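Study this one:
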Amino acid sequence: MYEEEILNSFYEIGKEEQRFSTRHGMVEFITTKKYINKYLKKTIEFWK
């Protein structure tokens, strides 16, 4: 639970639009989107 609280406090600091407007934020967004799509696709295929 402690790790979850740390992550939540990190992401609550600023607005997502501001974070993703930086170069580092864009890399984070693209990487996150890639993994979400990858595992969501596997999950959808599993439940078909």
